[in-house]
Fold these 2 entries.
Entry 1:
Amino acid sequence: MTLFNTLTREKEPFTPLDGKTAGLYACGPTVYSPAHIGNMRTYLFVDWLRRALLFAGFAPKHVMNVTDVGHLTDDADGGEDKLQKAARESRLDPWAIAASVTERFFTDTDSLNIQRPEIISKATEHIPQMIAFVSALLEKGHAYETSDGIYFDIATFPGYGKLSRLDLDAQQAGARVEVNPEKRSPFDFALWKKAPKEHIMQWESPWGMGYPGWHIECSAMGLQYLGERFDLHTGGIDHLPVHHENEIAQNEALLGHPMVRVWMHGEFLLVDGGKMGKSLGNLYTLADLAERGFAPMHFRYFCAGAHYRSKLNFTWDALDAAKTSYNRLLTAVQAHRGCTDGASPEPYAAQMREAALDDLNIPKAIGTLWTMVKQPGRSQAVYEAALEIDRVLGLRLDTPPPPADEQELPKDIQALADARQAAKAAKNYAEADRIRSELKGLGYELTDTKEGVQCKRIR
Ligand code: AMP
Ligand code: ZN
């Protein structure tokens, strides 16, 4: 198996440190608002990694944190705690927000056929470990106290910037005016924040009441569950320059050696070619997809079309094409079931295995899968080879395809179509026409056929 290591910028052969158990720390969700499809792309990438490890015969020990405190709005140490902000704006309790967003996160990942990690660790349940970590960094002279917190002193860690290959001197020269004059360098980052009164989540510490920084959370929980040296650490590409750089500084300042062997980063999902954002009105969740008639598997198949280190652009048309293609794939796979006319799974089965273990080349594996199932002839052996590679793909290829005429209309659309039928039956043609144009505005067209009125999505 090979994996691309961000640290070396190279594809490297991979075997776990102990030959069997692959320690994997995956940066988890910040649970202040429901995860969007961009977040889900990153967890799909981690799932393909996890499944490939299993496929290669290793046993993942997969740890994922849930960040329920301490992630500030600007990722470094400026702004407000995202949960505190969500609580203030919604007038809800941050604990209640965290609980409901976390629950929804796992409902979503389950629906995407993303396997659950062995260990799910909430930041708020590991505060003593974080305090111990920060205390040790202070003792070793890698941190200092200011009026608002404890900061990591990057001047004491010469390796700072090695993951993102930051040129610190160049950056320092152009650094923005520092908002916190007590910091020794603009790159120093908060390990612990002293809590203002209004900060709801706060804990006692040697430095008074406060809460942990986001970066120390992952270092402390990684150390706790995976130890001083472990195999793999993942996150989205945005985590590379700040969050993971800071984790490395904390880990290596404490231990005197690297904690993580292979760092892996998933590229971003774009929407209509650009960034996703609440204010841009293009931040979609799986629920938004469901409302337009797309199942989680359609999104999984859509993401499987791009390698995890490439950007992927989401559009409704592209998702629609993925849905069609996925349903065709199910049909093509099913056609082989129980057949005996000699079509061979080779050389495709071997090529698919190779692709899946070659830095998770999922798109290549799917391309080969298509070639295999479309060859002349039908055989159970081909069906079984498809299910074998599906252990990595996770596309539920044993599912029978939906009937071709199944419309899968979202509930509200079906209700409108029914209301129009009722209006027509009552000879209220004005109302029937009004509903028809309302449906059109929503992207659905009604056509009269021999079997009755059909409602079809047109965009
Ligand atoms: P957060 O909940 O903000 O901590 O993010 C959860 C995960 O989603 C992190 O690994 C991020 O790097 C990742 N992520 C955020 N936005 C995107 C995006 N547009 N595409 C892919 N991954 C993303
Ligand atoms: Zn993290």
Note: The radius of gyration is 26 Å.
Entry 2:
Amino acid sequence: MCGIIGILGNAPAAPRLVEALKRLEYRGYDSAGVATLENGAIKRRRAAGKLANLERVLAEEPLAGVTGIGHTRWATHGAPTTGNAHPHATDKVAIVHNGIIENFRALREELKNAGRKFSSETDSEVIAHLITHYLDKGQSPEQAAIAAVRRLEGAFGIAVLFAGEEVVLIGARKGSPLAVGLGDGEMFLGSDAIAVSPFTTRVMFLDEGDIAVLSRTSVKVLDADGKQVERKVHIFAGGVAAVEKGNHRHFMQKEIYEQPETVGRTITRYVNAFEERIEMPDFGGVDLNAESAVIIGCGTAHYAGRVAEYWLEQIAGISVETDIASEFRYRKPAFGKSAFSVFVSQSGETADTLAALRYCKDNGLKTLAVVNVPESTIWREADARLPTLAGPEIGVASTKAFTAQLSALAALAIAVGRARGTLSSDDERRLVRTLMEAPRLIAEALGAEPEIEKIAQELSHARDVLYLGRGVHYPIALEGALKLKEISYIHAEGYAAGELKHGPIALIDEATPVVVVAPHDALFEKTLSNMQEVNARGGKLIVITDAAGAAAVSEIAQHIILAPACDPFVAPLVYSIPIQLLAYFTAVHKGTDVDQPRNLAKSVTVE
Ligand code: F6R
């Protein structure tokens, strides 16, 4: 999950490394470090905590040199201390690593027995010692890197800097992504295209098992068999401009407010507004007229899939299975005769989702990716893709990516309905018209901010919060609970409203607020009964509903958050807004680090 940057440049490296790391903090932010070559010698600066701490260290003790590597860490092995921060180095080599080296214990033992001294608790440090071990045997940097990489088991993207070698930088990947940026007389390595975007728009993505040997003017790529290969150069124009907060206090707030636009952009990608029809891109052989579909994702992306399950079943009459990628990949799931699979991911790099996609491919299923980051691994490996056009999402808690996923999946549900003949043209037109109202309704829902901010102040004192929803709003309740816990650190659980009496009702007391997502739809009366049950037990209800629902709950709700009345089809998109704002303002009242909550990372590239 960590962020990697490598620079073989012509300008001072340290400020450029920090510049790139700022764009990579979304991959982890519990420590950071850089190493450069000063007159051929490896010099390092590292700091625990946010990048700002490393910047302070560099201000006090600057680093010279035009060649270097940098890293922002999300700890797996070893606490987030300065000593465990990357780069890890010997006198001959410095490395930065993203991933997990599974056989690090055996390698560490072997290298210790050979007299090498370790100074960190990380799995990564073995890479530096292993390469040094081969250099000590007289191998060239390229030979030593290849020999070491061959012995590594697990997942890695690495960049290697060699003492005395101003003209070589080596990168290798297996399981974790790595990109090469091709500059003008300069070369770069990055854990993704965003890392190298401040320096170049020409990007080459390494394949599984590739090793890249960089000079300032050339890239030699060796594949897993050691054969020299060519990899395509892409022009990547994204990533540079989008990392400003504008007038907003946090990226998350900015991203919540962008949703009328990002949802609109995503919907229009799939809608022919003139004919009121869905127009899908080339599906690369994915047959939407299948008997069943599987939808896989993690966290928020999984909840988007859960909403889509209701849509696909109700609109297209197709049997749908949704699962969390980390469970799915080890379940050995079986598939019916004709099925397609859908993978939902903002980053397109989530390790479990990628593994699930590969499992489906290996089992003969066509794969369709709903992905936000173009050219990410899931994007590239899927048979077909439905891009979400949310733009770069910087806040660690996903907001605009979620509603963009819902937008693309809503369009998919209509397309599947048409392919399976369950939707008439008139029905399709009605649904498309409804979907096109979503941006306006989302803008209206944002208008509840002042009320939500007040409620959030009270909620910030809670220790536990329950979220309830029924039908398509059950996954929205799950998403609401996830949002609250990840940024405010308040314990929250989402339940299907009807499940309350099967256990969770025991938790109800005056100190446990219950947030209910309940538009006045066909299931409202059922959810109202559940609200009565909460009220009867002294529970405090915060009800997110429309005007008709508000009239029905005015006697029992402690607080009402008003959402615009809308068609049930787009309600999940609209009701996502209040749950996001509620989590956001609760976290602001608690004073947590909203954009970079503790222990989390934006892109989860390890299992
Ligand atoms: C929650 C959140 C995570 C991600 C999950 C999947 O706010 O952001 O739960 O949704 O880690 O990430 P992607 O979508 O990048 O596969």
Note: The pocket of fructose -6-phosphate is lined by residues 298-301, 345-347, 350, 353, 397-398, 482, 486, 603-604 (CB under 6 Å).
